[in-house]
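Researcher: Next entry in the queue.
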Amino acid sequence: MTKIFRAASLRRDGGEHSAHRGGALTRAGLGLAALGVVFGDIGTSPLYVVRAVFTVHGGAVPLTDASIYGVISLVVWMLLLIVSFKYVILVLRADNDGEGGIIALATLLRTLSGGRPRAAALFTVAGMFGAALFFGDAVITPAISVLSAIEGIRVALPAFPATLIVPIALVILLTLGWMQRYGTGRVGAIFGPFMLLWFTGLALIALPHIAAHPEIIAALSPHEALTFVGRHPAIGFLAMGAVVLAVTGAEALYADIAHFGRRPISAVWFVVVLPALVCNYLGQGALLLAHPEAIADPFFHLVSSQWALVLMLLATGATVIASQSVIAGTYSIARQASRLGYLPHLRIRYTSASGAGQIYLPDITGLLVAAVAAVVVIFRDSERLSSAYGLAVSTDFLLTTAMLLALTVIGWHWRWWQSAALAVVLGAVEVPLFAANAAKLVTGGWLPLLIALVLMVVMLTWRRGEAVVAATRARTEGTLAEFAAQLQKNPLRRVPGTVIYPHSLATTVPAALLATTALHRSMRDHVIILSIKTAPQAHIERAERITLTQVSPRVEGVVHLTMRYGFMDSRNIPADLEWAQREYGWGSWKLSEAQWVLSHLGVRSRGKNDDAVSGAAPAADTGDFPQLPRWQAWLFARIARHSASPAWVKSLPADRTVEISREVIV
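Model: Structure for this entry, 666 residues:
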């Protein structure tokens, strides 16, 4: 037996090796690139945050000097505590083999749980729920960002028809969705410089107002926030429901760590983004101290009406970039979820020959664009939409904090009092944020939560359905040992050539192999049973992916290969197999002429013949295995119907690949 294996590693360097995979980019270049990808969402929050606070729940927060100081102080300290302390200082160190994001964190914790079933199941569900919450946010973020930017035209051109704002926003968003198929490689090069201009502008337009009312600098003190909440707890509670909008997008810092690395992201945050955001919020506060009537749109009133149109165009560009970042993040999360078995196989198109991360997912794009357009049409303006924003974000914050605390215990081995102290500090901020946003449930907060719950049902249905199918296959296909014994007892005629049977289970016989041997009563000289596994770490080096075993020493030419990939690795199965044969001198396989035969199990729900997905062979019943409820079986059958072909997913040669199908009843 030849075996090459690498155990999952626990790293705490924040993915620096991932950031430097290209080797050619300097840290400054990475920082500039990160500026255009990572910080778009949080960088466009000044467009609507301050206005949202003073209009939340019908204007429950009074526009007084004390409230202005308190609100701006709350915003500043949310940026410092949640983004700077929690995400930049702590969470960015919690990478999974260089990858970030809530799914990567959940997968790391599942690995560290040591095989304890309950803990592994808990972390799996947490990762699925976190991904679902991200998708819920991804629907609202482009809508509120683009609407907020377009609404600035009312300051520049007061006579502009308000009825045109929604159509303009829809055109921008639909065009953005249409452009995804062509990739962002060319225009992506200008994202960083454009966002540098944006953040510079955020600070510059605010400085004159701060200079005119320097007393606003007092809002930098946490005393102002604590005094505001302490003296007016009910009002402060309601204000926190909108203040959370200032830190939406914080999770992007963690999700994109693999592309840019912890140090460039941290440096850009502290040197460029945080100072610009703080300046702008202070400037809006200073403006409201002098001109409370500007609350209708305090961001665009930072400049004179002559410059408002220029600022609107700049803001529109920034929100388009922010929306593009959200779409790219959605692609990344969806691919991770698919690789880890939370979602079915997805159609993935690579839009760049040099960038494995530049992908286009047609199905995800269609669903996302349709959902965003529906949200724009339903809510129609950013003020109403802000009532729907925040609940999913604050829930995601709590979920990330809970998993971070678990990591400090089982991964970083902190003392109990250290983890407890961190829980108190973060809980004191995030629990009130969650409670305040829960109050918005009936005014729109239900929307992202509903999206998340629907996606949770889809993911749980897919995992459970796949488990039923796997159990059926294990029972009906027979073991490799039984197959080898049968070959010894009744040898088959061997014909020249090589055939490869991709197979998801390691110990059973591919259904396609059973079908072809039963039909032809013969077998190729070289038979490779190939299992492709997704490991819980993000990346596995090519030389460490493959395990080769002989099915039986008495059966010549039949081997079992296992290829293990990280959940973020690009996959080219034929190329990796040819590399392994050259590297290790395995067999006399003619891989360039080999035939690939897939075992495709179609799915239909019990008693619903029209639910059949495919299948030439008689259906296999799941028998004694747990049955899915009828509604879940119906849903699973339809998800399976729209799953991408395995030949597409595994990059197999189309002219030498066939599928042999059968049905399984769930």
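Model: Residues 183 and 351 are 5 Å apart (CA to CA).
Researcher: Noted, moving on.
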